[in-house]
Amino acid sequence: MLKISQVTKSYGNLKANDNINIEIPDKSVALLVGPNGAGKSTLLKCIMGLLRYSGEIEINGLKNKSVEAKRIMGYVPEIPHMYPLLTIDEHLEFTARAYKLDATWRERSENLLKRFELDDKRNKLGGTLSKGMQQKLSICVALLPEPNFILFDEPLIGLDPYAIKQLKNIFRELAESGHSLLISTHILDTVDELWDQVFIMDHGKVVANGKKTELDRLGKTLEDFFFDVTDNSLTDVKPNLAINSDFNLNSETDVDIVSEQD
Amino acid sequence: MQAFIYLKVRTIINWFKQLKEKPSRLISVLFYIGVLSVVFFIPKDNDVDAESEFLQSDLSIYVISAVFFAILLILNAFTWHSGTKRGVSIFALPDTQFLFTAPFRPASILLYGMLNQLKTSLLSSIFLIYQIPNLSELSLSNIQIATIFAVWIMTIFSNHIISAFIYAISYKSEKHVKIVEIAIYAIPILCLLLGFFFVIKASDPLSGIIQFIQSKILYLVPGAGWAKGIADLALLGSNWLGIACLAVFILVPIILMRIIYKMDIDYYEDAMSMVQATPNSAEQQEIAQEAQRKAYAKYKVGKTGINKGFGENAIFYKQLCEYRRTRPRIVGFTMITLLLVLGGMAVISKNSESSNPIFFWGISVIILFFSAFNSTTIRAFADDQFFTLPGNSILKIIYSSLLGIILAMFDLIPAYLFVIIYSGFNLILLPIGILLSGSIFMVINSAQILTYRIFGEVKSTFSLMVLFTFSLAFCLPGVGMILAGGYFIFSSGAYWGYLLIVGGFLANCLLGLIGIFTGKKYLEEGPTR
Questions:
Q1: A12: nearest CB among B6, B7, B290
Q2: Are A175 and A24 in contact, with CB atoms under 8 Å apart?
Q3: Which residue among B10, B105, B280 places its CB closest to the CB of A79?
Q4: Which residues of A are less than 8 Å from B280 in CB distance?
Q5: What does the DSSP assignment read for B474-505?
Q6: A68 and B103: CB-CB below 8 Å?
Q7: How much is the pLDDT for B280?
Q8: Which chain A residues are Cβ-neighbours of B116 within 8 angstroms?
Q9: What is the pTM of this model?
Q10: Strand, coil or helix: what is A31?
Q11: Domains recognised in chain A with CATH numbers
Q12: Complex ipTM, two decimals?
């Protein structure tokens, strides 16, 4: 389980993340959606331990910055950065060595390279890869150690249609095999029907969250939900959404307005 | 550790493999090695005169040891000081994705990053091998010379570990940084005071200095003193203090490495902000814009003249606008340095034989040579817009280089004016000196364009070293001819000295043109990055 408690990340006066509280259970797919500049990437970086912040983040009871937590986490950044003088194969081998993987990594590596059509480019240097190929390699590298919890930051950007299809299949397989995913995106059909939980961020806050089962029950799409929250002011959307305890609409002061039933 | 070694080894192997595919890089590497090898073919001077007899005396060994100590004292202070800030600037973008997210201890990554900088330090100190003939002339054996070089390399190695330690203990607060800075600079200052103490106490200043450089107290100085102790083992023979210095010198980095490894250091955010030159998220853009607003708010800039630009010369006006927004003051570091150095030399050498205009010009060229690497041309080449802008390629290159050359010549004016007036030289030397200096900049510009053409960047250690070598090699013919011409004119009034100066100027212009045409071809082919 990923548990984020009261996480605040400030840059001077700017609060990129403001008192974030999120819990994502095991074996679930969570979406982190929001407009540009909402603080999604910052939150993922905080989870990966790349930034300093106030608050607590734990993964399966482990502090997120510990070596043990890193071993069970995977991260696909928004913009991939490859070593210019390592080949595709060598990036994967380096990852295998860094995570101390057993000998089966080669087989997994082959499968990943084939799925993302990188197998015939395995000897190309990182510095010569196109942005799309770097993104594919970045995904392969994150998946190779088979982490329990994988964070994807805008994973579809730069991918060709075939790779998008493959990645969506991978999301499905990972979800079915019991991995937990947190996918930050502003492309709302990223995971189609795969997601279990959604968190909508705006101006550094989680302004709403909900479960797919309830959204389905209401006959609303993720897109409807997103625009209801982000297009209108909080008071405007409250009557539309606050009808069930599974939908939380957070106010400026981060007090859950939640539902009429509450 | 295994993963770090793999990363380093594969990077090095692939770098060499790349040379096969890029002949221009291979040629530049061979050229670089060739320049370095020249030192081994310099004939040894066997003439024994009074000066060399002195240098072969016992005192000369102490002088070598003292010079070695002084250089290390300064080097250590700067390297350790850089540890307070640079601890986080040693990583590249791929490191932030691959190392920071992997199950490594932050301390291990920091140590890896610091040790990775060894390459930079060693490459930048490779020019030390030019000292081999000088050391040989001082009757040092090969083992003694090798020991000096070994101690130098060991010092660089341990300095990186000490820098990592300094970062680890100081990064959390500015107060810690201040304390560490005071401690670092206290070491050379105390050494200087100790030297003064010896001079005051002795019967005459020279014997005071000799006593000081022979003093065993210097072995107590952290870093430089221990290195001196080891060097003295080779230079003066075995002694217990030297052996103790060797032990301390080896033990301190090992102990510090162990301490660093046990520390919980959280520097990833600083490292990421240092490597992300281009903010790529909305938050980072906001932060960067805020920082820029604060920086620009300091300066009140009126019309920058950008509206005068039209066609290719818009590049020049854009650069001028950027320059005025970031550095609105005319007086800068280079101008002050030139004024202080040349002015100081003019005062010292007044009425002496060395008070020769060409001597001052030569000194100014050395200073300008090192200040020329922050070039407007290289910045223009790094901008993709430079390639896509419509216009004549030659004009684009000329306009992109112009501001750098004008500013450099501007820096010279106060220093040259002071020297001319104070030393009573002819005022006509002012435009001539500036014109000759400008021609040097054309040559350096050529070296920069050529290096950029080969590497597609001038950031990596090796490309910088090649740039340095090219600049030096390109400058030599023109500067040599001008210096020789000036020497002959001012010492014997030989008319052909003027021909040499004109020849040097033309050689510089010719090399400058080669650079412009190399750049033209590069612009038309498109960026290699």
A1: B290
A2: no
A3: B280
A4: 78-79
A5: HHHHHHHHHHHHHHHHHHH--THHHHHHHHHH
A6: yes
A7: 46
A8: none
A9: 0.70
A10: strand
A11: 2-234 (3.40.50.300)
A12: 0.84
